[in-house]
Specification:
262 residues; alpha/beta; six-stranded mixed beta sheet; globular; EC 3.1.3.84; ADP-ribose 1''-phosphate phosphatase; phosphoprotein phosphatase activity
């Protein structure tokens, strides 16, 4: 076939010969407009999530996970700030403060810081003893671990502080019969929740103090107890601050005049 025949064969319906060898043919405005409406959409990740339901769902799920992680991180920081640690005297609290310590369910404050509570707050001890031995029975109907007893100011001596006493029942026994450490930690959670619930009904309370509960005679590392307390505080709607008091480190070989918490 000749070149003229080839050209004739390629003549379009309008009688015009296509633009052969002279660059791409010019598209009419309708074609350009139609193509532009699709090709102008950006191909970045945000666009893909908008146009693809699957990608969008994944994006939303990822964003939700990120938000949850941020919320958990903020809750952890908030709980940590609400458990404030000090070195000093637990008993120097102002009137209408509550002082918290860990207790057994046998009606005994015989050692550790419980002995100091017994000495300073004899009427509060009688209330604790009555709760364990009269309202309950150590063997037949013992106080349930994981609960608390909140005792209002009882001392009547002139100059006696008006302190509330919070007893957390974290172990049924004491001494060699104390509960295992994992059980004590497990009991600490509901006991502390119970206490916070009771405190929410006492608006006159000015300050919440505790010693490093469980950490001496109950032999539970304070770090472990602190962690479970922070979890409870993270879920507490009251946004209350708890002040934890401990003694300064004693020189090696010295005898403390003040014993720490069990």
């Amino acid at each position: 076939m000749t070149d003229d025949a080839d050209a004739a064969a390629q003549t379009d319906a309008t009688g015009q010969i296509p633009n052969i060898g002279k660059g791409p043919a010019r598209e009419d405005s309708k074609t350009v407009s139609s193509r532009t409406s699709f090709e102008d959409i950006p191909s970045d990740k945000t666009s893909n999530e908008r146009t693809s339901p699957k990608a969008g769902a994944k994006g939303k799920e990822k964003a939700k996970v990120t938000d949850d992680e941020q919320h958990n991180d903020n809750s952890t920081k908030d709980a940590a700030s609400r458990l404030e640690e000090h070195v000093g005297d637990l008993f120097s609290a102002p009137d209408n403060s509550v002082l918290i310590h860990a207790c057994n369910t046998q009606g005994v404050w015989g050692a550790g810081i419980a002995k100091e509570f017994h000495k300073r707050y004899p009427k509060a001890f009688k209330e604790y003893e009555r709760h364990c031995l009269s309202a309950h029975h150590p063997k037949q109907n013992p106080v349930r671990v994981g609960t608390c007893l909140l005792i209002g100011p009882r001392e009547v001596k002139p100059g006696a502080p008006k302190h509330w006493i919070g007893c957390l029942f974290t172990s049924a026994g004491h001494g060699r019969k104390k509960d295992p450490s994992p059980m004590i930690l497990q009991n600490t959670v509901p006991a502390f929740k119970d206490l916070l619930d009771k405190l929410s009904r006492e608006p006159q309370l000015t300050e919440i103090r505790m010693c490093q509960i469980n950490s001496v005679l109950f032999e539970v590392p304070w770090k472990a107890t602190r962690k479970v307390l922070q979890k409870v505080l993270a879920a507490d709607a009251g946004h209350r601050k708890v002040h934890v008091y401990s003694l300064p480190a004693a020189p090696k070989g010295s005898i403390r005049s003040f014993v720490r918490e069990h």
